[in-house]
Write a structure and sequence with these properties.
Two copies of one chain form a homodimer.
Chain A lengths: L8 E11 L10 H18 L3 E11 L7 H15 L3 E9 L5 E11 L14 E5 L17 H10 L2 E7 L3 H12 L2 E5 L7 H9 L6 H7 L5 E6 L1 H14 L5 E8 L4 E5 L2 E4 L10
Parallel strand pairs in A: 2-3, 7-10
Antiparallel strand pairs in A: 1-4, 2-4, 5-8, 5-9, 6-8, 7-9, 10-11
Amino acid sequence: VIEAGLPGERLLLKTDAVVEGVHFTSEHAPEAVGRKAMNRCLSDIAAMGGTPTHALVTLALPAGFDASMPGELYRGLNGAAARHGVAIVGGETTSNPRGLLISVAMLGRVPSDRCLTRGGGRAEDAVFVTGDLGGSMAGKHMNFEPRLEEARWLGDRFEIHGTIDVSDGVAGDLRHLMAASGCGAELRAESIPISRAARRLARASSQAKPPLMAALTDGEDYELLFAVGKRDAVPLLDAWKTRFPDVRLTCIGRLTDRPGLMLLDREGARMLDVHGYTHFE
Amino acid sequence: VIEAGLPGERLLLKTDAVVEGVHFTSEHAPEAVGRKAMNRCLSDIAAMGGTPTHALVTLALPAGFDASMPGELYRGLNGAAARHGVAIVGGETTSNPRGLLISVAMLGRVPSDRCLTRGGGRAEDAVFVTGDLGGSMAGKHMNFEPRLEEARWLGDRFEIHGTIDVSDGVAGDLRHLMAASGCGAELRAESIPISRAARRLARASSQAKPPLMAALTDGEDYELLFAVGKRDAVPLLDAWKTRFPDVRLTCIGRLTDRPGLMLLDREGARMLDVHGYTHFE
């Protein structure tokens, strides 16, 4: 978040990279890889309540890449950018000898008084999440919708106390919001919106995570997690259903003044000691 | 170059990546790699006459990286950024399974009426270059000075017609300036400032390029190449020597109204058919 001297506005500057073998494989269509690279940055701008404006694209192409690859990558990049009014204004193409890497740098803007951050949550706030959680690796991670419009709508109409995009699992990202807000939290197990993919993966293999754990700890959901004052919770939910009838919004718990993340289920309350996706052990 | 609504100013947005096996090897100290990654972006901001302000750093670390590597990379990144008043305000760390990659995104600003571009050169303009050319691979490519102060000084005091940073060799980059300006050019062979490194490399091996060709076609010089009206040439050179006594500035030729790049030497004039460094064959 950059104060650049624009009256009443701040600039947002963000970079995000996707790497072959980490965020996608050579099995994925280049167009889908390009779309994912752009959408990940858009999702981060969304989590600030911002409007993305310009992007630069760094393509690092593997040795012996197919001549059609750059065009297909750009079809995905351009499609996602155009859908959200973003101009790709530059970048570069270089080599990454043994694998494809795309880094997107994005510029956006946000009214200074509507810039959403992780901090600002308070005890008793209701915690909401958009969409369904878990099992993203079955397909959603390559084809998700950045919640740009939803986040701006929230910031325009409600006093949002803390926001983060769920990229490393609610059990991980909620901790970031808690830490920035100086709060603990309680989640209600029966309220967690478990995706069909997470349930299907659990049925398909006894080695898979139980669906609830998948929903709390799988990465790459690209949903919005946010806190609002408890008085706003019901009006917000009602207004949301009218405005975004196709996007599920769920109150999954509340912030508390006790440290730590608790999970409430039929057996009672227990500390949730799992975390989200860990980038480096 | 982005018109963001700042009165009298434009934003500059730039990304640049360095890749192991392309821009450096595992033999280079991580601190030097970090410095190079930052300085390359700074050199591009310089070529626009701009002032860099903020940077984001994407570190893509190889599998099994040494735990001291991120800190050493950042020592180089921070050192170069601090030297030029740039704040590193974010970025990310991810994996690049088989090699280190660093991408830097940089934000800067430039007064709208002093934004240097490749276009604007005119026939009869004098063509100048800073520093010495060629042989950068012997060491300079890891440790060069972005010409930020010099470029701003030029833009403040003279009507600069076209500017580019020499990263792919004068024979390549001058063609970009020519194309953007709709001009041809003539270079005087005896005026080309050939670096000691280029001469040394030529002496060391009969396989090496002749020094003049190295100076014209080697990559990674990171010097400024620019055109000014011929009446400004002598006053500019005089003022430069006073202001930057330690940085060589050389008039290497002129722009012309005939297409193509000519080289003038004792044997006469001939079309220079060599180009600079080619990124992809």
